Amino acid sequence: MKNATLIVDGIHCKSCEMLIEGSLKDVGVEKVFFGKNNMVKVFFEENKVKLNKIKEAIRNEGYKVN
Ligand SMILES: [Cu+2]
Questions:
Q1: Distance 16 CA to ligand 1 centre (A)
Q2: pLDDT, tens only, 37-57
Q3: What separation in Å is there between the alpha carbon of 47 and the centre of ligand 1?
């Protein structure tokens, strides 16, 4: 399993986290952890979903990602 740490701008509450987590699960991300300072750690299989697709899913919800 691969993992990546993303910095996502605009997360300000629990429902933001739930929205993002739901979208990420929809594109095939296995696990999502939210840390401090807008840090989002994602675990995924590269044969299922690519990092670009993960970032796109976050952007599609209206958040900025590095
Ligand atoms: Cu929010």
A1: 4
A2: 999 999 999 999 999 999 999
A3: 31
Q: Taking ligand 1, which is a single-atom ion, which protein residues have CB atoms under 5 Å away?
A: 12-13, 15-16
Q: Residue with structure tokens 């300000």?
A: 12
pTM here is 0.94
Question: Hey, how many other C-beta atoms are within 10 angstroms of the C-beta on 52?
Answer: 8
For residue 48, the CA-to-ligand 1 centroid distance in Å is: 28
Residue 29 CB coordination number (10 Å): 21
Chosen CATH of 2-65 out of 3.40.50.970, 3.40.50.620, 3.30.70.100, 3.40.50.1220: 3.30.70.100
